[in-house]
Amino acid sequence: MFATVSSPHTYQKRNTSQVMRQVCYALLPALLTLTWAFGLGSLLNVLWCVLLAITFEALCLKLRHKPILFFLKDGSAIVTGMLLGLALTPYAPWWLSVIGVLFAIVIAKHLYGGLGQNPFNPAMIAYALLLVSFPVEMTRWPAELLPAPPEFTWQAFTGDFVKVDRISGATPLDAFKTSAQQQAITDNSLWNNYLNIEGWVAINLAFALGGIYLLARKIITWHIPVAFLASLALLSTLFFAWDNGNYASPLMHLLTGATMMGAFFIATDPVTAPSSHLGRLIYGASIGVLVYVIRTWGGYPDAVAFAVLLLNVATPLIDHLLQPRTFGHDIKPISWREKS
After folding, report:
1. How confident is the model over 78-127, as pLDDT tens digits?
2. 0.70 exceeded by the pTM?
3. Residues contacting 160, CB < 8 A, separation 6+
4. Cβ(189)–Cβ(240) below 8 Å
5. How far apart are alpha carbons 72 and 76 in whole angstroms?
6. Bridge partners of 168?
7. Residue 24: which of 80, 101, 90 has the closest Cα?
8. Rounded CA gap, 143 and 147, in Å?
9. Which long-range contacts (CB under 8 A, 24 or more apart) does 107-114 make?
10. Euclidean distance between CA atoms 262 and 105, whole angstroms
11. CB of 211 within 8 A of CB of 233?
């Protein structure tokens, strides 16, 4: 007897581990740029988060009586660890990464059934948890030492903040928001002084380079990043043209913070994003709108993580409303008269 299976009869050339490996490759330019700009802190965070992610992944698989080596080889835990490590400040203490990775792997991933079942991006929901719970530790970004010496990085990693407090500063978006609230903005041209803070533009360009690599390798599609960046650029351009004394320029929104990381590596997560092309366009554009709204009028200067998580909630509804045509069927249902 012949086995009968449902259509479509397609074969995917890439498996999960190959896709995750390409994502890791695409993240390397950003990791190298962060290390160049801020010292070894980001590299240390990534290595520590990846080690923790593999450890917690193995423990969860053991408790769930799953084959450990088989699932570890898919590389999803490594990608989660890399993304969270890159999102953390270079001055993050070791225990902050432990809490974040524990929540990402155990709660946000395996509590929902593992890879493919999680409704939220694990790295971003862990980042949001850390930002809300530990705002001081999560906002220690380098201000004076660029890059920080290795011994200083190690002191920060072990939790010695005596010297960190003297040089930690705000990100460009945070600095601009504070200046706007205090009506102390001295330069708000299209390319202003806030963009000259060492490293941030280069970091976003490195993430964009990695995103272009993923597009070229057809790991992701263009719909989400283009819709995300286009809506953010459009809104920021309109408000900047209306009142450039109080609203940040589009270049600030596009080239600082986690914009490019969110557009190419976070929002494009195939598990938590819509499946249809139209749904992805709506999803990406909505994230861009939320990022601008939260950055401009909310309490968090970056807002990428919160915008992505809010749209993760809407993904099932988007997929339900924009279901693609079933293979082999017409778009419109056939009436009973046409059948007869």
Report:
1. 999 999 999 998 888 999 999 999 999 999 999 998 888 899 999 999 99
2. yes
3. none
4. no
5. 8
6. 142
7. 80
8. 10
9. 109/60, 109/80, 110/57, 110/60, 110/64, 114/60, 114/64, 114/66, 114/71
10. 19
11. no
